[in-house]
Write a structure and sequence with these properties.
Helix content: 25-40%
Largest sheet: 5 strands, mixed
Distance between the termini: 17 Å
Number of helices: 3
Structural class: alpha+beta
Shape: globular
CATH architecture: Alpha-Beta Complex
Strand content: 25-35%
Oligomer: single chain
CATH topology: Lambda Exonuclease, Chain A
């Protein structure tokens, strides 16, 4: 049996996302969900950094180019937010690239744009 990486932490993060989606529903811009989720993270005592600048590594070297993760929770999970009609394969590829470039082990891709909250756990393989 495979161990689920960051199981408890993921459960709490997704729970917070579900609370936000239940309250707001679909149809807002990503920035609205991001602000609401930050308030929910505080309420649920989930440690986070919002719009964290992450360094990109290539061939053992740090690049000057960086990217901004919507959230990094528990100092180890990248949380990418979307507000779209579905999770697109490009969103999954983007999150995988973030993981590869930063050495983080887990990304949560969360979509607030559908009638029910959808999310994907993406592992850095």
């Amino acid at each position: 049996m495979t161990e689920i990486i960051y199981k408890e932490e993921s459960y709490k993060i997704i729970g917070a996302c579900m609370k936000v989606h239940a309250a707001l529903g679909a149809g807002f811009l990503e920035s609205v969900y991001q602000e609401a989720l930050e308030k929910q993270f505080i309420k649920d005592q989930i440690p986070y950094a919002r719009e964290k600048i992450l360094k990109v590594h290539f061939d053992g070297q740090e690049l000057r180019k960086t990217f901004k993760a919507d959230f990094v929770c528990y100092d180890q999970i990248i949380v990418e937010l979307k507000s779209a009609s579905f999770i697109h394969i490009d969103n999954i590829a983007q999150t995988k690239n973030y993981l590869k470039a930063t050495q983080y082990k887990l990304g949560l891709l969360v979509n607030f744009g559908e009638k029910s909250l959808t999310y994907k756990r993406i592992l850095n393989s």
